[in-house]
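User: Sequence in, structure out. Go.
Assistant: Echoing your sequence, followed by the structure tokens.
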Amino acid sequence: MMFDLGCLIVDVKGGDRISRNSTRKRGINPGRCIPRLRVGLRKTENPCSFPSTIKHPPSNIPRSGISLIEILVSIFVLLFGLMGVAAIFPVGNHYVIEGEKFDLGSSLTQNAFEELSARGMLQPELWLYASTIAGGPLNSDFIVPQTNLTPPPNKTKGYFNMPLTTPPLIGDDTYPFGPGHAFVLDPLGTANISELRFPFAASTLPGPNNPWFGATVPLSGNVWPIRRLTLPQANGVPLNTAVGETIFRLRDDLAVTQPEEDDRPSIQNWDLDNSVVPPRLLRRQYKGDYSWLATIVPTSSEALDVLQPSSGGYGEARYDVSVVVFRRREVAPSATSERLIQAEFINDGEIAIFDTITNDKLLVDAAMEDIRPGNWIALAGVNQTTGVFMMKWYRILARDEETDETGNFMPFGTTATPPVRYLTLDGPDWPEGSFTDLRAILMPGVISVATQQLSMEDFSLWKN
């Protein structure tokens, strides 16, 4: 008879100890517990279990769970996360709007170049000055026709309306205007004001207001050299606002109504013909936030001379033609919407704007108001090698938020230390040796500019 005592099996008869390993030899599975014979075992007691003789020390680890402080900390962290998610929505909306602006601006520049060509706008004989000239009619001809031809008059044999030797032309201005050195086709602006000079702020300068007239490399003409022009309608009358809107304003930014239900799509607004029942749809309404003008700058002194159709070189010279796209431009140009201030290059891509006449910080701040990175500005100056007037467009990459009044900036050739604001620009190369004595033209809302070198044309849908 055998008894299992712990890990041993005892053979009572022989008195030998039999290890578990030896049970394999006798066909006994060592991994299986063999019940022991014990007296007084309860039926519910496991015959293979033994009471533990190992005493464990009491544990100092508290029972697992989440305290109120942990909950509050978790809520605090979650709150910051939700705030970060919420901040994404206005930022995303801002970039959506910016993307839409630049997309529309890019498409509008291409459309504008097609309009310039299709409507024959690049024909000086069709240009009209944007002012009343010497008692003449509003928007006098840029090219004065010759009358001694058969049949008269004939603009293709004409001459510039404003020679440099002309006596006083406008109001109290005692200086001759001359034909100009650069030109701005701006029928929308011209329909609302009669101002020959561009930008409008140039008209507020005391004469003679050509800052390069007495320079080391002078620019001919006493008066500011950029002229504002318009175009005629088919009947010869200058473009009015209604006609100009159809050409120089984008109509793709559609006007829609947002329904009260957030899950409903926008509703297109329409102009209606209420003379019939039910009203008839005429055309889709648009916001009209985007408009454009064009600047034309001769690239050489010869190019300015051959603007006259009577010149033998007409149509051969090249001009920098730029389409300038605005978003929400003021209808009537003013000194606030078209600004002018001194500037010079500090290094490649960086300019300083300042005013040495008044040394007024407020003037610099006013010039930079609403001018932001991504907008465009124009720089004007004279090439100190060739003497040719230049006007180029640049996109603002960065700007100083505050005007520097420390007196550390001294414009070239002066001893003044005016307040200054610095801008970083991206755009065409500016000629070496001509980095100083510049003027910056700043207009809020210029979102896109494209420039091509083109020749003047001799065909137009408007030409008789």
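User: And one key feature?
Assistant: The chain has three domains: 1-53, 70-253+288-330+448-464, 339-442.
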